[in-house]
Amino acid sequence: MTKQSPGSIQAVENKLKLGIIVTASILAVELAGGFLSNSLALLSDAGHLFTDVLALSLSLYGVRQATRPPSSHMTFGYHRVGVLIAIANAIGIFAIAGIVLHEAYSRLVQPMEVRGLLMLAVAVIGLGANVLVASWLRTEQRTNLNIRSAFWHLVGDALASIGVIIGALIILLTGWFWIDPAISMLISVIIIIAGVQIFRQGIRVLLEAAPPGIDAMKIIHTLKQMPGVRDVHDVHVWSISPELHTMSCHVLIDDLPTSQATDIRHRIEDVVRQQFQIEHTTVQMECQQCDASDIFCTWTFGAKGEEEKNSHQQ
Ligand SMILES: [Zn+2]
Ligand SMILES: [Zn+2]
User: Fold this and answer.
1) In whole angstroms, what is the distance from residue 146 CA to residue 60 CA?
2) Measured in angstroms, how far is the CA atom of residue 159 from the centroid of ligand 1?
3) How many CB atoms lie within 10 A of CB 202?
4) What CATH number is given to the structural domain containing 162?
5) Domain for residue 189, yes or no?
6) Count of Cβ atoms closer than 10 Å to residue 6 Cβ
7) Ligand 1 centroid – CA 152 distance (Å)
8) Is this complex's ipTM strictly greater than 0.95?
9) Ligand 1 centroid vs 160 CA: distance in angstroms?
10) How confident is the model over 215-245, as pLDDT tens digits?
11) Strand pairing partners for 252?
């Protein structure tokens, strides 16, 4: 359904793979450093990096699925497998944040000794890797939307690392160990926000919500302005996956030859693709107003059948 050149898909895949490898490496370093230095702040930042690895892996999965052909028994392809994984993992993220918050609370009540120097060293490594990846993506982020969001995410991660560095410095200078759980609480909040975003995005797809930023009324208004279009109704806009949007609608036109109707349909598909980033459109052309004349059709199961039965009896 999506048309993208194999070369550009490969380039995006490589960038994502690189991001996963670098982030997973920092995660491993922070996890080891967190246990060795007894720093909860480092461990919670490792938890945060886990959400990053997850988000990058899901993007990679999504990019790959877009190239996998659908089959006769899976006519939409496998895009929503990624959505299900995302929701399951968001629940896992909430669990991680909950464990960290619980541990942070008990450490605030009874502070534990933290090795400030090791904590500082690990956080500096994390920040360094972060800045490195961000600088790789800096040029692409101006043109590619996915890479831009990854770039700004990395900037946020760098701020979290700076928070851990400041915490380590304070511990080294003052011996205030409560700083460590306090910072991990802040990072937990960041993790929860990331989890909520992943969860919401997945649920929106499963609920067949209109994609964020796409207003169905605006599409209808735009189509109704087009030459040859007399009315637009029974409109549905939804997403197969967070990146892949779909629309179906009825379009009322004059009683034209099929070739002219096809021209109108092509123009509609182009407008919908270019102005609203909806790649897959199904248009039902009509020259008489049909039964489903509501803008968004009201589906009441059973009601249609009853109507038919009634009309047969008459
Ligand atoms: Zn992050
Ligand atoms: Zn209709």
Assistant:
1) 11
2) 10
3) 23
4) 1.20.1510
5) yes
6) 8
7) 9
8) no
9) 9
10) 999 999 999 999 999 999 999 999 988 878 9
11) 231, 286
